[in-house]
Amino acid sequence: MKILAKIFSEILHPLLMPFYGILMMFYYSYLYILPLQYKWLVLGGVLLFTCIIPALCILLLYKTGKIKTIGLNHREDRPIPYAICLISYICCGILLYRLLLPPWVLGFVGGGLLSVITAALINIQWKISAHMTGIGGVLGAAFALASMQHTFPIYLFIGLILATGILGTSRIGLGCHTFMQVITGTLNGFIWVFGCMTLCAGIPVV
């Protein structure tokens, strides 16, 4: 079971969540009409700034002994990686702004940025789940898309909710987080992303 938990933790790694979120928007919103080359440009930029660069920096920190584990399992290991992710999100947001993507897409990145800041602040005193913050953000994006379009594939909702539950169970099973850390992380990602996307789309949050 621990092997499966580790596999889910890697597939649903927080550094991959922005990529998954943008990919979801390209398939399940009016953005599907955009040219394929443009989509690849956006996805490549998102993957570079929010996954590849932070991952390489974390690996460098581990190799130089600045952090104890590459999985950032200790609260003390997280401040510098959080700062790196913060800068990466800002760069990603600038890229998407220059590529003229709609405001609600920028809201997705902005919500992710705010969730990272919140997690970093909470991390000063208490360990919060970055994995659950990431998938909570994608779940929030799905709800925001449904609010904007008044339609969204039910199978994707079910899949995201199941994935959230499986990931949370995996993180607890691996001994990385407590139940409350998992719940808090999920709410952190969900609230910020859903709120920012709906605000940028001009939809009242009720």
TrEMBL record:
Which keywords appear in this protein's UniProt record, sorted alphabetically? Membrane, Transmembrane, Transmembrane helix
Please indicate if the UniProt record lists Transmembrane as a keyword: yes
| Source species, domain of life | Bacteria
**TM spans (from-to):** 12-34, 40-62, 82-100, 106-124, 131-148, 154-174, 186-205
What protein name applies here?
Membrane protein
Organism, as annotated? Coprobacter secundus subsp. similis
